[in-house]
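Team,

Forwarding the record for the chain on the shared tracking sheet. I've put the sequence and predicted structure together so nobody has to dig through attachments.
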Amino acid sequence: MAKPFNRVGMTVSGVPGVGTITLLAAISSLYLTADESGVSSGDVVPYFIDDGTDFEIGTGTYTTAGTSLTRTVTISKVGGVSGTTKLA
């Protein structure tokens, strides 16, 4: 079961459609990084990615080495098409 953590908001990098994304910095001083919020390596967390046009919602396994999230998409809307496509 996914564990929720409060007020985490991070920038990401990744290749479109690839399973793992790299988590970068907090999106602003008003948000926490995963580490700051208490997420541990191996935790399964709910996530939401939004690029301003498309979105993706799912669960992911957090890894502190490389600060990454390996994810499973529950629902997405990419290019106006809903489904389970990975955004990044």
